Amino acid sequence: MSASSHTALHLPDAATSRPFSHGARRLLPGLLLAGTLAGAAMALSQWSWLQSNGVSTLTLAMVLGMVFGNTVYPLQAAGVASNSEPGVNLAKQTVLRLGVALYGLRLTIQDIAHVGVAGVAIDALVLTSTFALATFVGTRWLGLDRKTAMLIGVGSSICGAAAVMAAEPVVRARAEQVTVAVATVVVFGTLAIFLYPVLFHLNQDWQIVPGGAKGFGIYIGSTLHEVAQVVAAAASVGAQAADTAVIAKMVRVMMLAPFLIALSAWLSWDASRSAGEWPNGSPAHRGRKVPLAVPWFAFGFIGIVLLNSLLTLPAGVRGAATGLDSVLLAMAMAALGLATPLSSIRKAGIRPLLLALGLFVWLIAGGALINCWVPKLIALS
Asked: At what angle do helices 175-206 and 227-237 cross, to 10 degrees?
């Protein structure tokens, strides 16, 4: 074979590798920035005061992202935003979806057995009622845009910041809408940490939530926003409450994937129906079918939960995988913070907080009633 033929064979490889290496170089600054902020958040989250007050790594990553994103990041002279934008966009989109899928490593089907049929029914009722209330009150009474109302509803009804981020691709929300929703979860979830121990002592006299410490643990796990907040609040009540609270919360988290699939199907149907209405839609688009935005990462989440339930992974592998997932989610949260100007949050006004306050009251009062009546109804049946 001649030297020229060798050159001809190798030229395509060099040509195809050049765009790839150029693309990687464009992504690297933003990914490094998001990763650095995520690492700082993970280090700060080890502070005992933050842990005792239920401040999660995701919340810290968002705060650090917003601080940097509203100071150094937008300065044209520094050129940080222009160089980092491709990687930051990748972090808040692709990295986010991968992190949500890997979140399934924390859950198993066997968790359901620990809370029983009543616990699962309580979680399902709290989830659906809270989200429905958020969507209705937020759009009809408070005049919020539907995406913001839905994100606040998802964060309040399932698992806080992680659920808000998971729902963002489904509802196609903007970064500032995500940040506003997460902020409401942080405010009222933090308040609840101090409220639930007081409610436990009151419940010992009133006996609204049955089952003693174990039953109250299910109440905490089914109504409090973030996993970290559940741990902090339940630990103040006692070890038995903490055990059942975490399991009830994990079952609630497990409902995230089917909820996202159902939400995606409903949004697609609703968009198709709206496009077919007249005069809201033009005759040319009447009856047009809006394609279903399938959240593939939700199926990945379900698959990993099933895999984790059927296989016993080595502790080292599981620890490394969950550690990687924590980094990915923190990177996504930092990237969302970087992309959120404070002016957009101020523009949102007080209405998101009012909606979150209403949901907070519902979770406390309505959640107590659900926890009271569901076990009785199941026992009667």
From this structure: 20
